[in-house]
């Protein structure tokens, strides 16, 4: 197959909807293959696919935002139906549509490629992208009728003879609709008629497809049966079958609707309420799930399956209400094949409202202490794909397909910010047109890019020295996506499978906005703000950035940058291992540079703020003196590491004889500290040094502080020995 080319950029010609629609490269194709030639070439590819290994994953066509165009918001009944012969290359044909019969089996690649014919006998090739495997549109069978709204017609590359290969490209899944065989919109020449006409025949065909586990075809046949059924008494049984099939496919909205439509008023309605309850559970709507399962229990109080689902639902509601989780047990349940956890989301400590910073933000509705659970959220969408090269495409594909299958998710997901689009977003996004939600794949790719999180299997595993670098999935947590960024935030996030855990890193007052780091911060303010500008389009206005960019002198900023470069050059960006012996001359050189670097931090600017450019060198000095077992200097520089992360150090803490409470650094008021795994390591080195000097009480206090810090990092209380594995 030829490679699908991206849509070319449009000119300034507005279409019927007031959007850019037609580039100046439009033209009608001069030479096109005949119907026989198209079918013959297509059959070769279909046969090759039939001979290839089964169950190979289908590739994903990820949108190029530079070539974005909006989805159609019209019904197939609102557009002017045109013949295929009227199509112009590189045009989106705003206000027009096609009614087509599929006259070939599909070739399944990134899209489902088929040959189609209109009522006049014109033929074309069409590629339908971004359909879920649960939909028959993911590979439209031969003989089906489809409608294409405002079709994009483009060049798909070159044929073997050098001629241009033309194709109708359907990027937006809502731009194509499957037309029922009984629909009067079908032109008479295409009404060759299905072999099955009676509702009972369609029902039997659906049952056969179900037994063969061809669930999309089963849904299609049950739907045809409902359209054909003249006897209303025949419909409830079909609704029941379609509801169960939709439940298997994860189409929970449809399963709920069908199950409720199947009710007859008899005691057997327990089945309808049971299916509706399971569908709501699949949507994480546990309140409605409880309501329907309660009704099922009233009608059939002895059914074990209903009792089991009801108890599961009560457990999720308890988690939503209390935030009571057994995180240790959750961690132990994780495996590479089991990352989607059966848990409710606890968000009652927070609320979403307008932020004075920009857009929406997340705010505390009660006072929160350091270490307290701010919220715990199960992912709205997170594929089990930890290969870095595939994770983004997997999340994009899952998002499109889940929104298509469950339109009730559209409201929460589509309200997220997708970045600056080249056209104005349509308020009809997410609303049902022709039975499916309007979905703009370029908007979805934008909001995925701006709102997704990179996720290890667990943050705890990620802190271990043996952690496999780079293996992270991508996920979307809608509640957490409302958090704004700060370089020195008041919360820290961690992950257990598809569960995001947020804990307070300092005192947060009721009504205060909650912040997180979007990415690990860079030491130099101009570099890190360049990252924010490129990635999200903003410059950070947190306390640290304002201090460094507005209050610190340019001369000192440049001096810090120069001294940091000298330190990094000497150390080659490496931290000494436990038994590494560093030459004294190297240590003296680094120590001298670090003193100069510390002097370049104005006390009036950095009084209660982190000093990020000092962290790397301070950490290195701890490791260097550890190799020499110089415990007093280990203490001195470990304390400096903590201070450089922004923690308040009591006077004299650098002395080995000072008795103080290291855990107290997490509870200091008005200090803007930055919490990372390096703080935990510094506290462990502090404990090691105190032990080396025989100061057991201070060693125990340092371990207690390290355990608290590790709880913040990992998300739950766990053993510090995990850091050694």
From TrEMBL:
Alphabetized UniProt keyword annotations: Repeat, TPR repeat
Coiled-coil ranges (or none): none
TPR repeats: 270-303
Biased composition (Pro residues): 1-11
Highest rank taxon of the organism: Eukaryota
Domain named SET: residues: 348-519
InterPro entries listed in its UniProt record: Gramillin-biosynth_MTr (IPR053209), SET_dom (IPR001214), SET_dom_sf (IPR046341), TPR-like_helical_dom_sf (IPR011990), TPR_2 (IPR013105), TPR_rpt (IPR019734)
Spans annotated as Disordered: 1-32
Official protein name in the record: SET domain-containing protein
Organism of derivation: Triangularia setosa
